[in-house]
Amino acid sequence: MDALVRRSAVRGVTRAPSSKSYTHRAILAAGYADGALVRSPLDSADTRATARAVERYGGAVERLGESGEPDDPEAIDFAETPLDAAPGDLLVSGFGGRPEVPAQVLDCANSGTTMRLTTATGALADGLTVLTGDSSLRSRPQGPLLDALAQLDGRAESTRGNGQAPLVVGGPVAGGEVAIPGDVSSQYVTALLMAGAVTEAGVRVGLTTDLKSAPYVDITLEVLDAFGVEARALDGSGAPLDGAADGTAALAVGGGQSYDPTDGAYRVPGDFSSMSYLLAAGALAADPDGALVVEGAKPSAQGDAAIVDVLDRMGADIEWDRGDGRLTVRRSSLSGVEVGVADTPDLLPTIAALGAAADGTTRITDCEHVRYKETDRVSAMAEALGRMGTVVEEETAELVVHGGETDLTGATVDGRADHRIVMSLAVAGLVADGETRVRGAEHVDVSFPGFFDALDDLGADVGREE
Fold this sequence. Notes:
Helix content: 25-40%
Strand order of the largest sheet: 10-11-14-12-13
Strand content: 15-25%
Number of domains: 3
CATH architecture of the largest domain: Alpha-beta prism
Largest sheet: 5 strands, mixed
Distance between the termini: 5 Å
Structural class: alpha+beta
Number of helices: 12
CATH superfamily of the largest domain: Enolpyruvate transferase domain
Shape: globular
Number of strands: 25
């Protein structure tokens, strides 16, 4: 499907979807538990992949219907539905820390988070699990995680011997110490911590390089704590840190723990990665006589809340009522800035789009790891914005966008089957002359299924064409 975006203004109140990162972790944590209610989860292609994985390992996941009851009550082993459960909540019957060997191949579709987190789950089972995904996922690096599981005496192999899926993993591992690089994917750390809590000895993850995307590990620690699991970040001397973002040399989780959230439930917060596109749309294209308000912006461990600071530094008129969780943004004259995305890789496409419409130069640094997402997002944004008339320089770990030399013009651009590329280019299209056609618009289903509906409701001139 193509999205057709034309220059237009937006105004009104909208709400970003729930966090994909938190939803993945909450569904899997509920799977490691005997069971739990996951409130306000994101329903997307990626999170459904994690729910399927929990079921393959012996759990059951049911979405509550309009009545507030499971559509198929007999499909789930759960004492009773909590009285305050709402339609769309997920009722999870877990495998209690003892995953079964799946009866069939575990297909993770396009979800790298699902593959990495549940590969470690497979190493707990007394047998072999085969994990695969679509062509994009089968090209993404998994080698450091496989090596870590092998250090725990598990079986962990790439069928093609290249560190990429399909993967074969098995155990059961009992825990221990591993050493892995921290600058490829923080998801390796998350996978080991979540699985390590139910091993006999626990797991200590030593980092051989600086930890990139550290706020995502903070999210993991926050979710583990909510499910009653104690894990901690350590400095170089082995002393505990308050979080994982600064000075982390290792992370550790004790063994023999049980996942058990307070009152049997966990609520997923709003997603700042998804909010970034709405906030960018407001800063670039809000009606001059109005504003765009985004609800659901409660503070959390999400590193992508940094988009608020980035917009402020660029000169945006933006206000955040943290108590009410409301962000208000008005059309603003933006100026280029330098932004490092070592800890916030998912913001690169949004910042690049903002930079193309800003005065001056926007320099995005520390972004080599952003090349290993659903697509090479550095190259994808450089190519697409170039087609729209932007002067862009691409280096291995930098993307430089010369907004001051740019008159954005509508063009046909490739979303690269990547939800974040699609949404960022659609935002750029709101302020480009003429019509912007974004190929592969259906891929927003990965994290923000209602994205184009939200833009339409806010007054954007957006169409879709099969």
